UniProtKB/TrEMBL annotation:
Name under which the protein is recorded: ABC transporter domain-containing protein
Membrane topology value: Multi-pass membrane protein
Domain ABC transporter: 48-298, 701-930
Lineage start: Eukaryota, Fungi, Dikarya, Basidiomycota, Agaricomycotina
Swiss-Prot/TrEMBL keywords: ATP-binding, Membrane, Nucleotide-binding, Transmembrane, Transmembrane helix, Transport
Amino acid sequence: MKHRKSVLDALKLPPPPAYDLSIQGLSIGVPPPERYLPLPVPIPYPAFLSKNKDLAYLEQTIIHDVDVRCGSGEVLAIIGGSGSGKSTLLSAIVGRLANLPVKQGELSFAPTSLSTANFQTLSARQMKDKIGFVPQNDYLLPNLTVRETLHYAAALRLPASIDSTTRRTVVDQTLDELGLTDVADTVIGGFGGLRKGISGGERRRVSIACILVALPSVIVLDEPTSGLDAFTAYEILLTLSELAKRNRTIILSLHQPRSDAYNLFTRLLLLSKGSVVYSGFTSKCLPWFESLGFRPEVGVNPLDFLIDISSVEMGDDAKREASRAQVDRLVKAWKDDGKAYSADKSVRWSRRVSKEVGAAPTKDFAGQGATALKALFNADEGDAALRRPGLISQAISLTSRANKNTMRNHGQTLGYAVQAVVIGVMLGGSFFRLKGTPTTLCFQNQAAYFYLTIVYSVYRYCNELVVFDRERADHLYKAVPWILSEVVANLSINIIFPGLFSIILYFMAGMRTDNLAENLFIFIASTVLVQLGSIGFALIAASTVREFASASLMANGTSIFFFLSVGYALLQPPVYVNWIRFINVYWYGFRITSISQFRGRTFDCVGVTGVAANQCRGDQVLVGLLIPPEDPLWKYFVPLLGVVIGFNALATVLLAYWHPGGVKHAAKSGSHKKRPTPESDMDIVRQKIHVEVKGLGLSWVRPSHLIMSEQRKKILNNVNFTCPAGQITAIMGPSGAGKSSILQLLAGRKMNAGPFAHFQREGSILFDGHPLSRDQSEMVSYVEQEDEYHLPALTVRETLRYAAILRLPRTMSRRSKLARAEEMIGMLGLEDCANNLVGGPVLKGISGGEKRRLSLAVEMLNNPAVLIVDEVTSGLDAATANVVTLHQPRSDIYKLLDNVVVLAKGGKMAYAGPRKNVEPTFNAQGFVIPEFFNPADFLLDVISIDHRPENEKATKERVAGIVAHWAEQEKKEAGENEPDSQKVEIHEPLHQESRLTPMWIALPTILERSFRNMWRQQPVFWVRIQQTPLMGALFLLFYQRLKHGPQGGQDRIGYFQQILGSLPFVGLLNSVAIFPPERDLFFHEYNSSAAYSTATFTLATTIVEAPFTFVANLLLGLFMNLLAGLTTSPRIYFQFVASTFAVQSMGESVGIIFSAFTPSMGLSVSLVSTILSIMMQFSGLTSLSVPQWLQDLAWATPLKTAARILVINEASGLQLDCPPETIVSGECLVQNGQDLLNLFGWDDYDTGKYVGIMMACCVGWRLLAWISLMIKARGW
């Protein structure tokens, strides 16, 4: 295969400075067990409290005594089985070990251009700007195109001395090198499921491209070919090999390298469970193992051979123990004699390095950008040519990037728009044309004090800061330009939508119309600034702690200080919290709006005379609110702007110096120690099923809408093949060939087309001649390409045991089901990680390969009749009809296949039939498979398009010819087989037992699983108990014991408003923190053999939630009923607890309803916040001018009845001390409990009846949540 030019060759640019890597005796330990105090921000237990705990972890290591070297111009490949420590070693090389301790050893980089006298090694931290690291996971902004992503990567990563023309040339060449030209103008997609975007393989290439555009000296890649087809994987390795020849040091880990990649690696490091099996030159590797009696067979991929002999076999105990003994022998042999065998005595490693070693000749470099890069690469440390863009350049690039990403986030924009319009209309309806009477004026100022939710902003930043943490680890930019870019990029949204809300509310509520332009502008300006302050405060919370559960608890708890010091709900806060108003954006906003609306204004209080008429003067209203009417507005506007700036400045400091983000490594769980289990009595006999695909076509269509024209993309084009029972059928093809789409259609899974789009399907898929119905889906198991649906805080063994109980027939005993789980652990080689936590995005658990095998083990538990696997390389049982996709199949795996389906890009058929006929079919077209060449790699090579300009036209013609040849052959075979086609259609109907696991089996299992998962996530566990009573304790700081003075009535109204207004959001936060992972697992299991009813899942969710909510509200009642000085008795106390419980539970139910339908939690949180805000306005506690039909509608929520229960119970026997002058001034709103009830106009005081209605509403909302889940699960 012809080698492609590197970026440097194409541009005739000089290579970067060269560095050599040296690792000597490196050992890395396991993370210490971490226990945290139950606080919003996780703080470890003090050392003296845990000093007597188990210290066995101190003796354990992940990496043990590793020696390895890699010089400039060399490629080091780190290989080994899953869990061998490859990713951990790479993390050490780039200085990102997080909480993993280095037990011993040395890791350093040495510049090759220095003489012996000037020689000085550098640590990984000192090499931070010269190392490009591609992690195993992709962190990309979803709404940018591929070209834009690389453009901004180059702008941020390349030094400022590189001009824009050179940067564009580097980006274009990188797109060509990595085969991304076809998707250069396609968005990345992926986040939240609202944009389909590019494929997983293409996303992987973009991550690599982001590093390559920076032209680093050392490139470190963790599984760079993961998810790629063999052709693209080889092209990437070839590109890396060519880059190494230009003085790069390339270090990468691999799990499935193809045979012709062997010679691309200069050095190999073979690991097994963290120990070295071989470390040295590739040329000396096979001779070493031959000396130990291990010789690869002819035609076997040497890299596969090395991984096989150094891995513990899956299967029965005898094979497992024999292979384990073999690995131990290999490790010991290398420890005893390997270092002497691989000793490198070259001059460079003896630290006698001449200036010429690795120096790049410059006479040939004369091209675009050569001068700038030559100066850059020849610069000394600290030279200006090496400096990356400064703060201003960073801010400009980040602002442009953030602006595009924000403007294209249609889900977020829609949420903002809905929130602004709906809340504006509903608030306007609640305060619609308030009359000017003393009774209603006390409510009119409430329109100036509305709840600007910060919930969505906390959620958004908790997600976006993951990308920030990743890019900060690469030292791309500082915190200051990132903050500036966020503020500027979102400024238009934060002006337009709050402005729209303000205009709607202003005119619907009948606010001040004299000097309309001035007063409306003041209202809009105040609203916008308060919105910006709210978002800045949300950023502070997310900057302090990244987990949404903890960040939302912190934001919700702290915001209570702000809302209670505003001066409306509580006129005179205690002196020790009164200072908070000076940093409170809501305090300034309330005063600005109150002064502009009431100063110098007289209300037409019809029929009101005498002393009461004084309350119809706006200045008196301000006096009652303790606001000096003569205060100028700038006195509040200036500090309001200062607080907004201060919040963002504090967030900047936190982001710069406080680093809570990143991935932590999970400690091994001590639960479920392996113990003897009986033999599985697995006796499930599946009907053999023949799968047939006829004329299958799939198109993505987005119809024309307003200014958008119709778009259509063909994904599958007339696909025909069969999957005989008892045989393995593999679907192969390059990225974008539609392999995963076929599997989703075979498994009957719904596909997400994105907003305003849908899929059009043609043809048929038959299982023994019949379409697969939903009730028969247990017979088909589908292993998805992504493995993120596992609960992160469960161990591998626990995950399999719970799955076995749910998936296996009810006729099997629990003991036998657990034995089947243990059998799968042994069959798929998961013994060594069986007690390790699975892990998730922020908790590093088992390796990617182990997680893949776990997903396969879960689906194989019940011995399905049809097993559909998206990307798998091992563990298949030939007794079932297996349909798999393969990106990089090994040659020995290819020989296990019975049938092969080859697809070209665009879902076009290139071959479908028995594996034995592949060679004759392609030979007839002139494509002869070379001897000793992996046939699977050959097929992918000939069917893939090489996007280099010099090869693109020829390869497209070649692929088109192969597709046309197969189409002709299909027509010919169809004509020959037509007389027999009717015979295939006659089949016995499929038969199986009910697919749903009974509730009496599923419910206890789900409950145990959920409690265990939540208990191990301590922040989430404690948040559910802490958040509600913490809110009560904070309220108590402000209200203390409610007084019986002139402000007593207004204080009590504000007190109840705060309670009922906050609790639904507490329920929402609890739902968002724990429900989405459980929801994803439920929907996955509902479509599998583990299916249980939506009623079971809803009941389990309720049972898990209810005790926490009830205990939390019992504690809340102690603070807010007993200690606050409300009227109380045993009846009143428990009615108070019942009211707060019902309101909080409704918040959780609403959260479940919306998250069931919206894949984007950001949109869900925004919509739920809107709904809860609206519900509060209709409760009858906030406004007296709610239209009658809305008042009637409010009876469907617990808020209305809860408000009546709290007010009626407090009014019984209430007597306030109101001197006459306070009545005249308007300071005393009500004088006794009856006045309080008269203010609201209620005449029915039966709280027992209200409790019954309220609890019925609570149950009703949970039933609505169940119905929503059922609609979503069944696809109605």
